[in-house]
Automatic annotation (TrEMBL):
It comes from Pseudanabaena cinerea FACHB-1277. The chain crosses the membrane at residues 20-43, 88-106, 113-132, 138-156, 204-237, 340-359, 365-390, 402-422, 452-470, 646-663. This is Membrane protein 6-pyruvoyl-tetrahydropterin synthase-related domain-containing protein. Keywords: Membrane, Transmembrane, Transmembrane helix.
Length: 669
């Protein structure tokens, strides 16, 4: 008995060790796949993209403020010549959070951005691998993961647009699809045991987390993905109704009506579980989404579509289909980025995939084809009417953002094609039945299989050639300027808060938006996240002190006791003589070098006071007569505060559910 137990224990340890080794090898392969896509960065450094100026300045500020103790720096202090900007109140933080581990390891800003892109590519490869393994063997899942990471649109986002927020959102799409598949599979498996309920939340939690991570990455991709995803549970859960219909045939007509009601009920609850999971994911990131919903009216958010070029209906890849005079886009970016060749690649894969689906009628292939077709349609004038019909879609700015979906679906379609041809070619050649055939028939069979192999090689060759051709165009239009990136990084690292350069000297622009003066670097941020009250031009008309009275000839003392990230403390004196009838006449307005935003709170002698904005949007505070201690702190708007509370509550609920499912469940005990 003891010897048998020891043998079992030994074999169990061997199995665990083998699984560990296999897991490590898989991880190394996936890291290698991710690193291949980032090799140009590893060689040449961080590229000059459409968003390099913001990626560098945001990462510098986020990392500096995080290191000072601000775990979630919503307000970027160095932005707009030190006047600040509510950037990460409205912009998802994942792209900056992903740089923090590399920053903590001592990497500079460009290196941390490169590291975050390796991490994003690894997240995509891992998610695609796990999703593809639901349908295909491991070796093919790895191939599909490689195709996803090498997707032209994924590389365009990284190397030309610098859209690293969108890169992260794309990386979470396969995780959403996989969690959806697992949840639906779990629901269908429960049908034989009991009516479908909202219990057993393990895969529902995974789906909620996946949606939450995408929401913290990129809002346009979240919007696109969610609108398409809404149809997926409705389609895939049709098997639930089909299964019950088969039961109707065996039970007879007497219970048909009752069974029909149960069918509909189970279907509605099952679809509801999927939708509820997504909703829980969004509620879980209320700390970010609630301010987005409630506080947009506080800032100049309309600047997102400041030009007709930033409306998706004006940035189609193929126009003129309605008038039967089709023509590709003539915009400089679409014509030079590799976007149009990628359009052709999608069309080709869709046509071949549609033929395969007509032969095989595979639901999963139909799903991937449908998602890809929707993405393709929305970049043509056939789908352009939706942008005007659903105004929120105009927030995505560019029609080809729908192609983020194809980074997952096109490799999956190619994997499905490859697996279908593989099975038809090799699945029956070595079967005992075929081995007993006469030589003449075997020759015919081998000839047919050889033809299939040729077609397979041809399709794979054309696909890889298309990928290589398009990726080559992408890299041909990628610029690298290590000296410029190093110069900006060096100047940024020399900044000391709250010092800002003297703008009255001669300044030159650097990375288009920012300014370099003799005494340092000044950073400018996007206008859409400035408060509506802000009208000050960038660069400012003069150098502003940290604090001053509105009256330039005043002699009252102003002592800056501390001016730190997220909080200020100032000792002020107002020597004005008040009017006994109206004490407010003695008030003087203290103007601070910071833009107004209502998330800031001010106290005068520990009593809450009113924060206001002057004609240019600077913060001003009415100081009563006498000597006073002024304190300011970024406390967040009501939406930020309530959003944080809701997110903390959801986190506690999630922890409880996980603990109960794994440790407190009496059935498992």
């Amino acid at each position: 008995m003891g010897l048998s137990y020891l043998k079992q224990d030994f074999h169990s340890k061997q199995l665990n060790l083998r699984q560990l080794i296999n897991g490590l090898l898989l991880g190394l392969v996936l890291v290698g796949i991710a690193a291949i896509a980032i090799i140009p960065m590893l060689i040449h450094g961080y590229p000059i993209t459409h968003s390099t100026q913001f990626n560098l300045s945001w990462a510098f500020q986020y990392q500096r403020q995080f290191a000072s103790g601000q775990l979630y720096p919503r307000w970027l202090e160095f932005s707009n010549f030190g006047f600040g900007n509510a950037t990460f109140v409205f912009y998802p933080p994942m792209l900056m959070i992903a740089t923090l581990p590399f920053s903590l390891l001592g990497m500079d800003v460009p290196s941390s951005l490169i590291g975050s892109m390796v991490l994003a590519a690894f997240t995509l490869a891992w998610g695609i691998y796990l999703y593809a393994k639901l349908y295909f063997p491991s070796w093919l899942a790895l191939v599909i993961a490689g195709l996803a990471v090498a997707s032209p649109y994924f590389l365009i986002d990284i190397y030309q647009r610098g859209a690293i927020a969108e890169v992260w959102a794309i990386a979470f799409i396969p995780w959403v699809l996989r969690a959806t598949y697992k949840l639906i599979d779990q629901i269908i498996n429960q049908v034989n045991q009991a009516p479908v309920t909202f219990s057993q939340p393990n895969h529902a939690i995974s789906l909620a987390i996946a949606w939450g991570m995408m929401g913290l990455s990129h809002l346009p991709t979240l919007l696109i993905s969610f609108l398409v995803w809404l149809l997926i549970p409705l389609w895939l859960l049709k098997d639930l109704l089909k299964h019950q219909d088969q039961q109707d045939q065996t039970e007879g007509a007497s219970r048909t009506r009752q069974r029909f009601i149960v069918n509909i009920g189970n279907y509605v609850v099952a679809v509801g579980r999927c939708y509820l999971s997504a909703i829980l994911g969004f509620v879980g990131i209320s700390f970010f989404l609630l301010p987005i919903i409630c506080d947009q009216q506080l800032v100049q958010i309309a600047s997102i579509n400041f030009s007709p070029e930033y409306l998706p209906q004006n940035r189609l890849l193929l126009d003129g289909l309605h008038s039967l005079h089709p023509h590709f886009a003539s915009h400089w970016f679409e014509t030079s980025s590799g976007m149009i060749p990628y359009f052709g690649l999608i069309v080709t894969v869709l046509l071949i995939g549609a033929i395969a689906w007509l032969i095989n009628r595979n639901d999963s292939m139909g799903l991937w084809l449908s998602i890809s077709a929707i993405a393709l349609l929305m970049t043509t004038d056939l789908g352009a009417w939706l942008y005007s019909f659903v105004p929120i879609l105009q927030k995505i700015q560019f029609s080809w953002r729908w192609y983020g979906l194809t980074v997952t679906t096109i490799p999956m379609i190619l994997g499905g094609l490859g697996w279908q041809i593989w099975n038809q070619t090799f699945g029956d050649v070595a079967s005992p039945h075929h081995q007993k055939l006469v030589p003449c028939i075997m020759v015919q069979l081998l000839l047919r299989k050889s033809t299939q192999i040729f077609i397979t090689v041809l399709i794979i060759g054309l696909t890889l050639t298309s990928y290589i051709f398009t990726d080559k165009i992408v890299f041909q239009h990628t610029g690298f300027d290590p000296a410029l990136v190093t110069k900006f990084t060096t100047l940024a690292s020399q900044k000391e808060f709250p010092k800002e350069p003297n703008v009255e000297g001669q300044g030159t622009s650097i990375l288009w938006w920012h300014w370099r003066f003799a005494d340092g670097l000044a950073i400018v941020d996007v206008p859409e996240y400035r408060a509506k009250e802000v009208t000050m031009p960038m660069p400012p008309d003069r150098t502003y002190p940290l604090a001053s009275y509105a009256e330039p000839d005043t002699a009252e003392s102003i002592q800056i006791q501390s001016w730190q990230f997220g909080r200020r403390q100032i000792l002020v004196e107002n020597q004005s003589l008040g009017n006994e009838g109206d004490p407010n006449q003695s008030n003087k307005y203290l103007t601070l070098r910071m833009f107004y935003y209502p998330a800031w709170q001010v106290w005068i002698d520990d009593k809450s006071a009113l924060l206001d904005a002057n004609s240019q949007g600077q913060v001003q505070v009415a100081i009563p007569q006498g000597r006073h201690l002024l304190r300011l702190q970024y406390v967040g708007t009501q939406a930020e505060q309530w959003g944080s509370k809701i997110s903390w509550a959801m986190a506690m609920v999630l922890i409880y559910i996980v603990l109960r499912a794994n440790f407190l469940d009496p059935v498992k005990s």
